[in-house]
Amino acid sequence: VCFIPGGLNCSISFVSHVLGKVCVHGRQKEILGVLVPHLTDLTKSDCIWQRICWRLVECVPDRWMEAVVLGFVQRAPGADALSRLLGNLVVKNKKAQFVVTQKILLLQYGHTTAVLQNLLGYLSLDGLRRTLLLRVLQDLLETWSSSSAVKHSPAEQQLYISKAILICFSHLKEPEIESCRQEILTSMMEGVKCHLDSSLPQLRRLGMVVAESISLKINTEGPVLKFEYEEDDETRELKSLLVQTPSFCVVPSLPNDVRSEKAGATLPLVPESNEKSHTAAPVMPDEELNAELDSDDDLIPYDTSEDKELKIKAPVYIRDCIEVLTGSGSEDVDKWEATVKALESLVRKNPAATREVSVELAKILLHLEEKTCIEGFVELRQRAQVAVLTTDPIPVAKYLTSQFYSLNYSLRQRMDILDVLVLAAQELSCPKFPGKTKPSGAQKPCIQLLLGNDSPKDWRRIVDERIKSKTRRFDMGHSRVELASCPNEFNSVAGYFFFPLIQHFDRPLTTFDLLGEDHLVLGRLVHTLAILMYLAVNTVAVTAMGKALLEFVWALRFHTDSYVRQGLLSCISSLLLSVPTEQILADMTEELLETQSWLGDVMEKDPDGDCRRLALQNLMLIENLKKKLEAVPS
Amino acid sequence: MALPPPDPQFVLRGTSAAVHTLHFSCGGPEPDIPLLFSGSENGFIHVWNLKTHRVDTALDGHGRKSVYCVETMGGKDRLLSQGRDQRICLWDLAEGRTSVTDSVFTEHVGFCRCSLLKVAQGRWLMAMAARSLEEVQILELPSKTSVCTLKPEVGAKLGMPMCLKLWQLSCGSQPVLLAGYEDGSVVLWNVSTGKVLSQLICHQEPVMSLDFDLEKAKGISGSSEKVLCIWSLNEQQNLQVYKTHELVNAGISDITIRPDKKILATAGWDHRIRIFGWKKLKPLAVLDYHTATVHCVSFSDHSNPRERLLAAGSKDQRISVWSIYAQT
């Protein structure tokens, strides 16, 4: 398509029609791929060409306007190019305005950051259009701060809206922000609340980054909002959007101007403080001046080999530890610290003594608070708890599971109980040292073969090592010979871990309502149950556990929180992997069919990407089960 | 083969409270009894008879608040004590009396020990931490008139003064003050003009104690970290770091140089007393007797070198007395 220069009276409307029709039929790429670069060049300096271009787009009939505008927005190499191409189309044409200010931003979310930059930059470049920019910002903030949007819209859409908000702010000037400062502040506060309430860490972080950036923009002097979170590529990209670079560059992931500015500012401070005081290098003693008789030589030193670092002795007996920790010796903080550090190993070395006081120890550890600043206090406490639980599983599990549903515990303590149960179950079901990392609770069951739940006795171990090549190497561990009542230690206690947790979930207490606002703990509980189910493979109770779990999942399957739904789907996976196939098909056929249809639904309609993936995985597992059954001649 | 460190010559028990300060008074001629004064956390000052190893007198003048500094003023009959009741008391102990003759209300709520310097017969200068956070006040005793107040400049952020040492190069010359502060720096003040002569950052943590050797113009300071810092004073009255020495365990409560300037002793938070040679800071001995933080060390002023003793007071309520390197 070639334009005829000159001939200023030519009617462009025919061309607009052609353009519109082509775009609507989905050929935007081809036609605009040629048209846009041409027009960009031509309109750079030539006003007439600009007018021609504007007439061109204005004459496109309304029913095709969306396709054309969208195409232009996507193809334009920069905001100012877009401005030259479209002119004040958005102001003059209602449909274009709707597309630009509403549809692309709020109803779609598949576009790249470059598109957003183009669009919002375009809106900011002309005085007439800036009012639209403000309106757009307000709409975006309304969506960002609405709690239902945060709960139900997919993470990708929320990311898109956050980016749009940040880009808007980068374009707005002081007086404009001032004029609607109060509304921005209100929206920000509400939005932050909804985001922090979410169970998904990505959304929480998104909320934090956006809130920080907004606060930075509206509070130019005075303290700004500062959250603590881990930086990663996404947060860095978001923060870089706040600053506009003047070049025509369209690539969104610009080098971090904001951060490099800050880095530059801190450098001058450091050399200053060095000048202030005399931290002079030590003056070496002048050898010549002090060459006197070394009368020190007649002072013979004594033996100082005993002079070592002072170590506070930790108590050697478990009951002494209990005394120290319960604060009867609250004066001696050094001893308290040493006790906390030594407790885990003491518990593991003295299982008999521990068993006498196991519930008491568990109680003390559950309520233990940090008295002094020890490094890794939380981990030390957790390891001690796991040690106590594995040494005396049944009473301590009973205690912990009962406390999970008791009054007056903090959410953190309840989640700690769940973590400890999982770690202990892991340790009991496979006799090797538990790993140092806590499961985040979002552990997806892996498809690899399960670890051998073998007896701790050596001969079995050797035989099995020969048979199963996938068995992990056992560490020296500690002798569990006294507990040699059954080969798989988790076998006898799995029920004690599992069933009490599942029992009371629907009974709200005054301070704890799993089905209500404490959905974060519910999510963790569901994930914990999934892990316990997974670890219960080859135990006697596994079928009963499976049935109970299936009922539990069925009751909660429509929960609104995506973290909970992910957990429920993990439960199904664990179930399918752990319960022997024959049992599933014998006892749970109807439930399985119902579950299958529910999974199909989730896979198609669930807004959360992870949920859909897990549902697909489960459906595949069920298919495998059926195939296995067909393969076996019945 | 080095010998194992010696045991204490004897141990004084009976204070029934942590011992915070010690001071010997053994220089008197025979038949004077050598004495050791100790201040405890329960507010008592015990006068120990070093022949019988028993308490001769117990002085109660600080309202049961901890006594953290005792010094004699020209003999065992006049005693100065400083306590946590914000008072400095002057005692008259001649002829068996135990009365407080005078007291100074310092309004200081910290732990900074005061420092005494005899400037003329019957006249003393005393440096003490004053009421305001960073100031040091110099008083003349016994008149209790204020000579000057040493204020760091605004924004210096030195923190509280932690330890003081008043000295003068010779009788009649300008008195100078060395002060260790909370921010880890040691400052040399000119008392007459009230100005800072030199400032040196010795430590990252507060300076807990310091001592100074006039003859060699060298001093040593200890802090709550692991490093001992030796600094020197050059002709321009500038402080410079001479050497540092790292210890095994962190925390020094007290440092003192023996009057013959041959050895020095440090009292450690790790319950140990360390002896070093002063000339090159050669570690000589580690005396491990106490079972809690050692709060103070003090050398005796015996005129007969063979009788010299070292005493250490600790939180475990004992005072250990050692005879170490007494033959040199």
Please provide a written account of the structure.
By secondary structure, chain A is mostly helical. Chain A is 65% helix and 0% strand. Chain A folds into four domains: 1-108, no CATH class; 126-244, no CATH class; 312-391; 426-431 and 488-633, Alpha Horseshoe (Leucine-rich Repeat Variant), CATH 1.25.10. Chain A has 31 helices and no strands. The longest helix of chain A is centred in the C-terminal third of the chain and has 23 residues, at 609-631. Chain A starts with 12 loop residues before the first helix and ends with a helix. Residues 247-293, 432-473 and 475-486 of chain A have low confidence and may be disordered. Chain B is mainly β and 328 residues long. Chain B is built from no helices and 28 strands. The radius of gyration of chain B is 19 Å and the shape is globular. A four-stranded antiparallel sheet of chain B has the order 1-28-27-26, with no helix packed on it. Chain B has a four-stranded antiparallel sheet with strand order 2-3-4-5, with no helix packed on it. Chain A binds chain B through residues 277-283, 285, 294-296, 298-304, 306-310, and chain B through 1-6, 185, 198-201, 232, 239-244, 248-249, 262-263, 270-272, 277-280, 282-286, 288, 325, 328.
List the helices and strands and how they pair.
The complex is a heterodimer of chains A (634) and B (328).
Chain A: H1 13-24, H2 28-43, H3 47-58, H4 62-75, H5 79-86, H6 89-92, H7 94-107, H8 113-124, H9 127-145, H10 147-152, H11 155-171, H12 174-179, H13 181-197, H14 201-218, H15 233-240, H16 257-276, H17 318-325, H18 333-349, H19 351-356, H20 358-367, H21 377-391, H22 393-404, H23 411-429, H24 458-467, H25 489-503, H26 519-535, H27 542-556, H28 562-578, H29 581-587, H30 589-605, H31 609-631
Helix pairs in contact in A: 1-2, 1-4, 2-4, 2-5, 4-7, 5-8, 7-9, 8-9, 8-11, 9-11, 9-13, 11-14, 13-14, 17-18, 18-21, 20-21, 20-22, 21-22, 21-23, 22-23, 22-25, 23-25, 23-26, 25-26, 25-27, 26-28, 27-28, 28-31, 30-31
Chain B: E1 10-12, E2 19-25, E3 35-40, E4 44-49, E5 54-60, E6 67-72, E7 78-83, E8 87-92, E9 99-105, E10 115-120, E11 123-129, E12 136-141, E13 145-150, E14 161-168, E15 175-181, E16 185-190, E17 195-201, E18 207-213, E19 218-223, E20 227-233, E21 239-246, E22 252-257, E23 263-268, E24 273-277, E25 283-287, E26 294-299, E27 310-314, E28 319-322
Antiparallel strand pairs in B: 1-28, 2-3, 3-4, 4-5, 6-7, 7-8, 8-9, 10-11, 11-12, 12-13, 14-15, 15-16, 16-17, 18-19, 19-20, 20-21, 22-23, 23-24, 24-25, 26-27, 27-28
